[in-house]
Design a protein that fits this description.
The complex is a heterotrimer of chains A (597), B (129) and C (591). Chain A has 597 residues and is α/β, with parallel strands linked by helices. Chain A is built from 23 helices and 21 strands. In chain A, helix 9 crosses helix 12 (323-335). With 129 residues, chain B is an alpha+beta fold. In chain B, helix 3 crosses helix 4 (101-114). Chain C is of the alpha/beta class. Chain C contains 18 helices and 22 strands. In chain C, helix 8 packs across helix 10 (335-351) and helix 8 (273-296) packs across helix 14 (433-447). Chain C starts with a strand and ends in a 15-residue tail after the last helix. Classes of the chains: A alpha/beta (597), B alpha+beta (129), C alpha/beta (591). Chains in contact: A-B, A-C. Chains A and B meet through strand 1, strand 2, strand 7, helix 4 and helix 5 of A and helix 1, helix 2, strand 2, strand 5 and strand 6 of B.
Chain lengths: 597, 129, 591
């Protein structure tokens, strides 16, 4: 006889910490006791993302959702629910707004935390089959625009939707299109898709292009219709071979189906899209640098104005938008600006895709409505901090962003609130840090990235960031002074004030935001020569506790630089001047006599 | 394939596809066959999704189980790649994480053939519009 | 014209729309320092990358500071050029730049002429608060140019002239981030690139990153060698520029002082390249007339237009970029080359010194001439016709090294027999000069009549491309073009390739305005009025000459009588004409 009922128990870290293992063993005990092994089965699952109310138990097939289950509840769940089919009322989730208990997880507000608009087709359709895209309203928005709307109406709709650029700075998309449409009418123009995703740890655009390439093609054609362009270019980094392949397949199919090319849908509108490959330079995400790179020139930014809308690719009016921005366009046209504008906050509409990473349980690609709090993202969607550690900070906006801390956990996330908190939306990298992360080292990491990725055109970015990095390195090496901290602040301010492009102007943000939020940690590094997270190797101090040392000589024999002296059966001593802080001695010591500070 | 010449053509195609897709969106249809989606974005492939997918296809074939195995994009569960979503007609879709070959075998033998859930279920925590 | 009203440093100003903050401030007597910004008004040369960030100013209400050199004035803008925020940022940017700049000003070839050094002095930099890694690039030597990339501040002026002005593209920014620097593709030596050694990169470089190869030491050594006889020639454009190195106003004509200074330095024979410029006109003019006559007679094999060949960077350009068209330029050697060939044969015999014991030095406004000296075909068995070429700047250094007070030096004459010249020769120093000099002789020869007017105003001027139709009664309407800047020359070469070049005779010079702004001239730091003053001085020198047509030069007439026979004779073909080679650069990506 096949199993009829399944009892799903959350095996995520949060729930495990709150005794889900005991619950499982209790449930299994009860199943055996009631001779139900053929009828019901306990299954451990991944995190439900509802750790705040863990441990979670879910009964299938009726989708009953129990929260804060204790091992002692197992008996009741089996006897009442499994055997008698009666739900255990006291364990049901109580919806905070209605104060009603909710039994069916499908109706729980919680599951709406993530709303997939841009990612609507990702993980749902076969990206290499245009017919599946069409079945999911693919190219319907383009058809609607071409047959029922004027370019002005489309632009008005986009403006009304409140969509802002998802590449980082959040410029209103409709306004951008309007400027491009009014620029030098009648001339050749270009629609460019910026797929030069470069933030460390970010893969939103890649996933979108791999999972739903047709939405991007469709949106670019709509943009072409609006601004009066017949040519589209996708600037994509060559390190994204799968995304490139899927785009090539999609473009080929769209042309075969007559949805790109000449006389689309019999409307007389022509639009073609080509790919342009980048070599993976972060700065080429800056639109002027991207355009230069596409022209075959050195990928470095130029001063704006002129903006690309005035003079872009080959000197022609050009509209550049990011992949995720385009992904939202067809939905806005199909569902209407009002629908889109109903999601999000006052000034930031719709959703945002984040690549959630770092010290978090559910690393992944998420799409959440603007206005969600960091707490919801980290603890509910992300399943909390790994290994039950303490949350310390979350880095948003990549190398241009900053660190947000505990005090920002309940701030609704949108473009403006993030800037106000000293970070930025960026393209959507979100890296969670715990107590083991040293904030000086984090600032150093991001700055190291910018130093590598700077194009070298302007002095503050080329030399200034290098000098900032050198100061940070001195601090993490234990050679920092209080003057270094002052220099950090001043130099950061000047770089922000004088750098040529967005990359340089924002490059000191990780430094400034960590200084603002973790000043004490900086001072500790400089004054006490101490790294509380234990990340800065040079600041570690290894000592042998003479009371615990048995004089076994294991550490002295293992030390690669012979920094440990002592005689057999007598306590050993580490010569601090010679010690290279490799940690080998700690591993070798069987008595736990060696401590690290 | 004939070109889609106008909006009416496009709508017609959408409707003709709808049947196939609605089965996927709403799995209550009884004639529907089992659908298996494998997350085949870069991250999925890097964690072995290709091997999982080819195993599923050949194994289902061997056992003469009629099922549609298809590649899709990123499902979002980066921490548990490769991910596979199985929809048995009449039931809610179930997503399994970390589906390497042993777990794929288990999915076929336990879930698809017996209807029995196995470990590695990932609770879906988003809704798609 | 639309104008814009704004406030700069609490003063109202009205400027035409499109004016930058830098220019608007300049009009008000506010000097905002710049480094990367560079432009030669009226000579179509500019570099405005907005990269150095030294010119940042505060614009009230703006989030960050604005670079004055590229930010256009907007209505009601309130600009503060000396607020603490702007001054602090400017100083910090300069300190950053200096923190990656060698501290070897004392030995630097640009010392005293360096814009970075000047700016640091003006800003009163006393220490550099930032220490850290410094760039470590190797110095690179080529026949003409020395590159010291450690001194590169990424202003990109050199890149702009090399790409935009000359269409050569030998150097450009490579690498990114801190190691970003202007260099050649794959770090090759300049000699292995498309570089034509025009040296305009040296002329515009604000620091010591680019400099000429210095030959002054070798010259002093040879002068002191009792076994050697030394002779020197001075190019036309040198005499209107050298005075600047001694504090004289631009455009001072110092021909007599140069002759005196060279004698004081100790050269045995002080001659004039102007003499061989006249000789060039005889040879090249005769070639033009010959080719033109054949062309007009219907000869399909003759190559028209004839192009001048006295600019060594231009010669390098067509050898490297258009070797297939190398039959178009005249085979006549440059004046420097003709001088060298004559000195090492005719003159060496005359004074009874073997050519190996006779050292020929040229003073040129040019760095490409150094490369020309090294051409194998311009020498005999490894003994070059011209041993060394030095620039105007090097001559100034020689004069100073030799304790000569140039300003109080009495004027002297050039020696004979290679010292006398005409006005036609001196105008070789400015764009259009070779054309005009050739016309003065060719038109007279073609028509057999004395010219009613000597000044061919239609080919003068400072526009990059000038064309004119010169009626030659009884022969043809001669269509001529004068261009400077190799980008303009490229246009003509493309016309020839496409078969639609409308000209009979074309003059090409690589440098802005011709040799007056050659890369060996005193630095003008972007002040176009200096070049204009030199330009005017060249024509003034022409006017002052008693003889103004090359064929009337008695020393030229004498050498034909005595040595060469007639223009384009067998002997002159052997000594005064040359060959061009296919030097197209083939980039081998494997190596």
């Amino acid at each position: 006889m096949a199993v009829k009922m399944h009892i799903l128990v959350c095996g995520g870290t949060g729930c495990s910490a709150s005794a889900s293992r005991e619950i499982i063993s209790e449930l299994n005990k009860e199943i055996v006791a009631h001779d139900l092994t053929d009828f019901a089965k306990v299954v451990v699952t991944g995190c439900f993302g509802f750790c705040e109310r863990g441990p979670i138990v879910k009964i299938i097939p009726d989708n009953t959702f129990y929260t804060r289950v204790k091992p002692s509840d197992a008996k009741e769940i089996i006897e009442e629910h499994i055997i008698k089919g009666r739900k255990v009322q006291r364990l049901l989730y109580v919806a905070p707004d209605t104060n009603q208990s909710v039994s069916d997880s499908k109706h729980m507000e919680f599951y709406k935390k993530q709303v997939r608009i841009a990612l609507r087709n990702c993980g749902f359709i076969d990206p290499e089959n245009i017919e599946e895209a069409i079945a999911r309203d693919g190219y319907a928005a383009l058809g609607k625009c071409l047959t029922e709307m004027t370019p002005e109406q489309v632009i008005a709709e986009i403006k009304k939707s409140g969509l802002r650029g998802r590449g980082g700075a959040g410029f209103p998309t409709g306004l951008k299109w309007e400027i491009a449409s009014k620029s030098r009418p009648g001339e050749q123009k270009y629609v460019v898709c910026n797929a030069d995703e470069g933030d460390p740890g970010a893969f939103m655009d890649r996933s979108l292009l791999e999972g739903d390439p047709h939405s991007i093609l469709e949106a670019m054609a709509i943009c072409g219709y609006c601004i009066g362009a017949n040519n589209g270019l996708i600037y994509i980094r060559a390190e994204y071979p799968l995304a490139i392949h899927r785009l090539q397949v999609a473009i080929k199919q769209a042309k075969e189906y007559g949805l790109l090319g000449k006389d689309i849908l019999g409307t007389g509108f022509d639009f073609d899209i080509e790919l342009r490959y980048g070599a993976g330079a972060f700065v080429c995400g800056e639109e002027t640098a991207l355009i230069h790179s596409m022209e075959g020139k050195r990928g470095e930014p130029t001063f704006k104005p002129p903006f690309p809308a005035q003079s872009g690719y080959l000197g022609k009016p050009t509209n550049v938008n990011n992949v995720e921005t385009y992904a939202n366009i067809p939905v806005i046209i199909n569902k209407g600006a009002d629908w889109f504008a109903s999601i999000g906050t006052e000034k930031s509409k719709g959703t945002k895709v984040f690549a959630l990473a770092g010290k978090i349980n559910n690393v992944g690609l998420i799409e959440v409505p603007m206005g969600i709090t960091l707490r919801e993202i980290i603890y509910e969607i992300g399943g909390g901090i790994k290994d039950g550690k303490k949350f310390k900070a979350v880095q948003t906006g990549g190398p241009s962003g900053g660190c947000l801390t505990e005090k920002h956990l309940d701030t609704p996330i949108d473009y403006d609130s993030l800037v106000a908190a000293g970070s930025m939306m960026g393209s959507g990298g979100m890296i969670v840090m715990d107590e083991d992360d040293c904030m000086v080292a984090i600032a150093k990491f991001y700055l190291g990235f910018t130093v590598d990725e700077s194009c070298g055109k302007c002095t503050p970015c080329r030399v200034g960031n290098r000098r900032l990095l050198e100061i940070l390195t001195r601090i993490t090496d234990g050679k920092g002074t209080m003057k270094d901290l002052e220099d950090l602040k001043n130099l950061s301010a000047v770089i922000k004030d004088t750098a040529l492009c967005g990359l340089g102007q924002t490059s000191p943000n990780p430094v400034l935001s960590t200084i603002n939020n973790f000043w004490d940690e900086y001072v500790e590094h400089v004054v006490d020569k101490k790294c509380r997270a234990g990340q800065c190797k040079a600041l570690k101090k290894y000592t042998i506790d003479p009371a615990k040392c048995k004089g076994c000589t294991a550490c002295a024999r293992a030390c690669p630089v012979s920094a440990i002296s002592g005689t057999v059966k007598n306590p050993h001593v580490i010569n601090q001047l010679d010690c290279i802080k490799c940690g080998t001695c700690v591993e070798k010591c069987k008595f736990g006599a060696i401590t690290v500070q | 394939m004939d070109k889609i010449k106008n909006l009416a053509d496009l709508r017609k195609m959408k409707e003709s596809m709808q049947g196939r897709m609605s089965m996927r969106e709403n799995s209550d249809s009884s004639e529907a066959i089992i659908q298996i989606k494998v997350g085949m974005a870069t991250s999925g492939i890097a964690s072995g999704a290709k091997e999982t997918m080819s195993y599923l296809i050949s194994e289902l074939d061997k056992r003469q189980i009629k099922a549609l195995v298809m590649q899709v994009g990123d499902m979002g569960y980066s921490y548990a790649e490769p991910t596979v979503e199985v929809t048995i007609p009449g039931k809610d879709p179930v997503v399994f994480g970390e589906v390497k070959i042993p777990r794929a075998k288990e999915i076929i033998e336990k879930y698809i053939m017996e209807g029995e859930l196995i470990e590695g279920i990932l609770p879906a925590n988003y809704r798609s519009i | 014209m639309d104008t814009i009203k704004l406030t700069i440093d609490n003063r109202a100003v009205e400027v035409p729309k499109g004016t930058t903050i830098l220019k608007a401030a300049e009009q008000m007597g506010i000097r905002i320092p710049t480094l990367c910004h560079f432009e030669l008004d009226g000579l179509a040369l500019e570099n405005r990358p907005g990269g150095c960030r030294v010119c940042v100013v505060e614009v009230v209400g703006r989030r960050n500071l604005a670079p004055a050199c590229i930010t256009e004035c907007m209505p009601d803008m309130v600009v503060k050029t000396n607020s603490f925020r702007a001054l602090n940022a400017r100083r910090t940017v300069l300190e950053l730049m200096l923190s990656d700049h060698p501290n070897d000003c004392l030995q630097c070839p640009k010392s005293g002429k360096c814009e970075l050094q000047t700016l640091a002095a003006e800003m009163g930099i006393r220490e550099i608060p930032f220490q850290g890694r410094m760039s470590q690039y190797k110095k690179e030597f080529s026949p003409s140019i020395v590159r010291d990339a450690n001194k590169c501040i990424m202003c990109r002026r050199c890149e702009s002239v090399c790409h935009e002005y000359q269409s050569v593209g030998a150097i450009g920014a490579v690498e990114r981030g801190f190691p970003a620097v202007v260099s050649t593709a794959f770090g090759k030596g300049l000699i292995d690139t498309n570089c034509v050694f025009c040296g305009q990169c040296v002329a515009v470089c604000p620091t010591g990153a680019l400099a000429e190869v210095d030959n002054t030491g070798k010259i002093l050594r040879d002068i002191a060698n009792p076994d050697l006889k030394t002779c020197v020639q001075v190019a036309p454009a040198v005499r209107v520029a050298l005075g600047e190195e001694f504090g004289m106003p631009a455009g001072s004509i110092v021909t007599g002082k140069i002759a005196a200074a060279l004698k004081a330095i100790g050269f045995d024979y002080v001659f004039d390249t102007d003499w061989s410029a006249d000789l060039t006109i005889m040879e090249e003019g005769t070639e033009v007339i010959g080719r033109l006559k054949a062309y007009l007679a219907g000869d399909k094999d003759v190559k028209i237009p004839v192009m001048t060949s006295c600019c060594p960077a231009w010669v390098n350009f067509y050898e490297k970029f258009y070797p297939e068209l190398r039959d178009y330029p005249s085979t006549a050697k440059s004046p420097q080359g003709m001088f060298g060939a004559t000195v090492k044969t005719y003159f060496a015999d005359k004074i009874g010194v073997p050519r190996k014991k006779l050292v020929c030095v040229s003073v040129m406004p040019c760095v490409a001439k150094k490369y020309e000296c090294e051409r194998e075909e311009l020498g005999v068995n490894g003994d070059p016709d011209v041993n060394y070429s030095i620039t105007t700047r090097e001559l100034a250094r020689l004069i100073k090294i030799c304790n000569i007070d140039f300003n109080s030096l009495p004027e002297a004459e050039f020696d004979s027999p290679l010292g006398m010249s005409t006005g036609a020769a001196v105008i070789f120093g400015a764009t259009g000069g070779v054309m005009e000099a050739a016309l003065r002789t060719a038109v007279e020869v073609l028509t057999g009549k004395t010219l009613p007017r000597i000044d061919f105003e239609e080919v003068r001027g400072l526009d990059g491309v000038r064309e004119a139709t010169i009626p030659v009664p009884g022969v043809a309407d001669l269509k001529v073009a004068v261009v400077y800047g190799l980008k303009n020359a490229r246009t003509i070469m493309e016309q020839i390739k496409a078969g639609n070049c409308p000209y009979h005779f074309v003059e090409v010079m690589a440098c802005p305005g011709g040799c007056i702004d050659g890369a060996g001239q005193p630095y003008h730091h972007g002040d176009a009025s200096i070049i204009k003053a030199r330009h005017a001085a060249i024509y003034e020198a022409d006017r002052r000459m008693p003889l103004r047509k090359s064929h009337e030069n008695p020393e030229i007439q004498a050498i034909y009588k005595e040595f060469y026979g007639k223009p384009c004779s067998e002997k002159s073909h052997h000594l005064l004409h040359t060959l061009y080679f296919d030097k197209k650069i083939k980039f081998d990506l494997e190596n």
